[in-house]
Amino acid sequence: MIEIPQEKFQETLDKHPLLVLDFYSTECPPCEALAPKFEALSRLYGQDVHFIKMFRQGNRELAEKLGVRSSPTLLFYKDGQQVGEVLSGGIRRSDIMRNLDALLPEERVREIHSSIKPVVTQTEALVLGAGPGGLAAAIYLAQAKVDTIVVDPLLPGGQVSTTHQVSNYPGFIEPQPGYLLAHNMAEQAKVAGARMKVAVEVNQVDLAKKEVLIDGHETIRAKQILISTGASPRFLNVEGEKEFYGKGISYCATCDAKYFHDKEVVIIGGGNTAVEESEFISKFASKITMVQQLPHLTANKAAQERALSDPKIDLLFSHEPRGFYRRGEKMVVKVENLETKEMKELVTDGVFVFVGMKPNLDLITESLDKDEWGYLKVDADMRTSLPGVFAAGDVTSKQIRQITTAVSDGTIASIIMARELQ
After folding, report:
1. Residue 327 phi/psi, 5° resolution?
2. Which of 115, 186, 217, 227 has the fewest CB atoms below 10 angstroms from its CB?
């Protein structure tokens, strides 16, 4: 693998029939996550495919010509023509391999795959999840000289990384962009000595053995595991929802209601969370339209009475959202009347979706104690029901889920883990 300037690109492309190009940037967390994977795959596929890197900011002319606008970006070439997918952001090893395999004959692909040797990595503490709880724990563990590895299928930060602004995190007078707060937490963990394995595929988790298999070939064995995989909003799975997540659609009133002072918002949902959060949002918004699929609210009676008596709140019963769109500075919510099947548009400044959350525990197969909603039960030391396994943050059973409470959980868990390991 070599680095070249843009002036050498065409010459290199002409010389090598199979080629992959990595446009990278400095001070770029996704680039740092990609680098070891790209290096390892260059050794694996290097006899067949030519691997090159190019600094995007120093070679803007070529980057723009090739349509590259973010770092990292991987481009694949065969016989001088760009082929396959354009990979960018948190690029996984399997995504790169899929595109490399497409360049080669099937027999050669089988040979390369058969040459991949399983790898076993030993560590003292394995943090599963790089949200605020996991990163806080990694900082404390690493500073206590505990060998620590952080694993996450995405880039660090969890939900914080997709939050527009965070204005209630202690120590910052001005609101902080969510991605920047997440970046700083991850960098602090790395400076402390934690090893980061992010944007990886987590194939298997064995809590009894304290083992995690990533990218299909590397087994990480630990003495203790912290589960900090967080929780995710239950999505409506309608058009535009993913596209405008964090860009007009929010799932957290505490985080984002303050940005809608004297503005109109739409709330999706009619249960306890939706109705109770509408009270908070009402302190800021000038008007709230609550869209509920049932012909009545399902929240507790006291909360319903407060919502029904709030002059700012209009209730739209027996309606469901069918799509979210942007029209200039406004959000547009297309809703369907479930009784008449009539469609109409609600034009608003922002949308809050409160149809529930779910803990991210799909890969956890062991029988851990959970509450009635599926969140992990922990004691005051953040221990789960399985010895040597701790949990922190939004994945645990608790009343309040905020960045600060996740950080608190991670701090407690890490201190207890470090004591036991020493």
Report:
1. -130, 95
2. 115
Instruction: Report the distance separating Cα 352 and Cα 335, nearest Å.
Output: 14
Among 273, 285, 411, CA closest to 349: 285
Report pLDDT for 168: 86
- Regions of the chain short of the pLDDT cut 70: none
Tokens of 335: 């809703």
CA distances (Å), origin 396, targets 104, 226, 341: 46, 11, 40
Q: Give the strands of the sheet with 2-3, arranged side by side.
A: 2-3, 50-55, 18-24, 73-78, 81-88
pTM exceeds 0.85 for this model: no
Question: Distance between CA 312 and CA 225 in Å, rounded?
Answer: 47
Phi, psi of 254 (to 5 degrees): -60, -35
Q: Taking a C-beta distance cutoff of 8 angstroms, is the pair 414, 225 a contact?
A: no
Predicted confidence (pLDDT) per residue in 60-118, tens digit: 999 999 999 999 999 999 999 999 999 999 999 999 999 999 999 999 999 999 999 99
Q: In this structure, which topology does domain 2-114 adopt according to CATH?
A: Glutaredoxin (3.40.30)
pLDDT at position 300:
86
Q: What is the pLDDT of residue 249?
A: 94
Buried b (16+ CB within 10 A) or exposed e, 364-394: beeebebeeeebbebeeebbbebeebbbbbb
Residue limits of CATH 3.50.50.60 in the chain: 120-232+357-421, 249-353
CA distance 191 to 183: 12
Residue 235: the pLDDT is 87
Query: What is the number of alpha carbons within 13 Å of residue 281 lying toward its C-beta?
Result: 36
3-state secondary structure of 317: coil
CATH class of 249-353: alpha beta
* Separation CA 303–CA 385 (nearest Å): 35
DSSP for 57-114, please give it.
GGGHHHHHHTT--SSSEEEEEETTEEEEEEEESS--HHHHHHHHHTTS-HHHHHHHHH
Nearest alpha carbon to residue 97 among 49, 31, 54: 49
Q: What is the CA radius of gyration of the chain?
A: 24
Token pair listed for 43: 């050794």
- The CATH 3.40.30.10 domain(s) of the chain lie at 2-114
